[in-house]
Specification:
alpha/beta, 12 strands, two-stranded antiparallel sheet, DNA polymerase, domain 1, TIM Barrel, 11 helices, 10-stranded mixed β-sheet, binds S-adenosyl-L-homocysteine
């Protein structure tokens, strides 16, 4: 699953097989997501045996699955080295989406997020990111038409693998998902934003802002000490001017921390004149963290301030919160008491 079509052609060549075999194999792996070579029924038995000793298909094993009342489903995937990651299936009126993880754990240390609590264990390979999508597509039997790179991990901290994944999944030899149907979310790693901008992809960049100034953001997100708000906003403007894509800003509302009308006004000043969209997320509960979700009225008030200033804003529904599948609730392993 880590191999793109050219690398699959090279592998097939090494095995002394004709080139057209590469397309067949690639299709089994990247479109059908099969887990074993002996399921590749249009290959000769001899070739299947050769492949068996030369490679592994790379699909992931589903270790657990939980379904929410709202149709959201959370998957725990077991990786080949025994580590695991969580991914989420999100059915929408306009199609089905998968939220993929890019790392086992995370080293960014955001104070409100569960994914970062044990630190970073390792990066996922491009194929391990890809296999979350095919794994969920096969398990649900529903076509996946969009992807959000918003699971555990910081995509900019594993950008080369994430880019390879995006290239493979958008290709017509892959799932052929349009770049416009892919969203990548970052906590604000500025060099990563610049590097991504240079590729000029049509994907949506989503930035986890959560605070309108350095004073507040420093206390919530350690990454801000390295890349402060001004620099982050500059990189976002550059991203828009290169790609012509509007940037989405994520803002999780935390009771008494970042949710006042004054802070909403500060946010308005920060975003004025930018081609952007704000996603307000009432904070999802993470058991070990002391932060609380803002009340309905505070959320409404915050939203009104942005709306009055003409900033496009939506309040995101907390999908899957009853099974800890919502933003910031994904972990390395299933919490105790979950079905496995
Ligand atoms: N590392 C990337 C992607 C993973 S986090 C990033 O930071 O963007 C996905 C989104 O969930 C981010 O916007 C993150 O800030 C948000 N998030 C984390 N913990 C949350 C929580 N407890 N409630 C609501 N959103 C949260």
């Amino acid at each position: 699953m880590d191999l793109n079509i050219d690398e699959t052609i090279a592998l097939v060549g090494q095995l002394g097989e004709p080139r057209f075999r590469a397309a067949q194999i690639h299709k089994w792996v990247h479109q059908k997501g099969v887990r074993r070579f002996d399921e590749m029924t249009d290959l000769s038995l001899g070739l299947r045996e050769k492949l068996q000793s030369a490679a592994v298909p790379g699909s992931l094993e589903i270790a657990a699955r939980q379904e929410s009342k709202d149709g959201t489903a959370k998957y725990l995937f077991r990786l080949s080295d025994g580590e695991s990651v969580e991914s989420v299936f999100l059915p929408h009126d306009y199609g089905n989406s998968v939220c993929v993880s890019t790392q086992v754990g995370c080293r960014m240390g955001c104070r409100f997020c569960a994914s970062t609590m044990g630190g970073l264990v390792r990066n996922l390979t491009p194929g391990e990111i890809y296999a979350q999508v095919t794994g969920i597509q096969n398990d649900t039997g529903k076509r996946i038409s969009s992807i959000v790179i918003m699971g555990s991990g910081e995509p900019m901290d594993n950008l080369d693998h994430v880019l390879k994944f995006i290239t493979m999944v958008t290709a017509d030899t892959g799932l052929h998902i349009g770049a416009r149907h892919i969203t990548l979310s970052t906590c604000g790693v500025v060099p990563g934003i610049r590097k991504l901008a240079a590729f000029d992809l049509q994907i949506t960049l989503s930035v986890s802002l959560h605070a309108p100034n350095d004073r507040m953001r420093d206390t919530m997100m350690p990454v801000n000490r390295k890349y402060p708000v001004r620099e982050l906003m500059k990189a976002c403007r550059e991203y828009t001017s290169i790609t012509n894509r509007r940037v989405t800003f994520e803002y999780a509302l935390i009771q008494g921390v970042n949710d006042s009308a004054g802070q909403a006004e500060e946010l308005v000043r920060l975003l004025r004149g930018m081609l952007c969209h704000v996603n307000l997320i009432p904070l999802n509960r993470v058991q070990e963290r002391e932060y609380r979700q803002s009340g309905r009225e505070r959320v409404q008030k915050f939203r009104e301030v942005l709306e009055r200033a003409g900033i496009p804003v939506t309040v995101r529904r907390e999908k899957g919160a009853d099974i800890d599948a919502a933003c910031g609730q994904l972990r390395r392993r299933a919490a105790r008491g979950q079905v496995t």
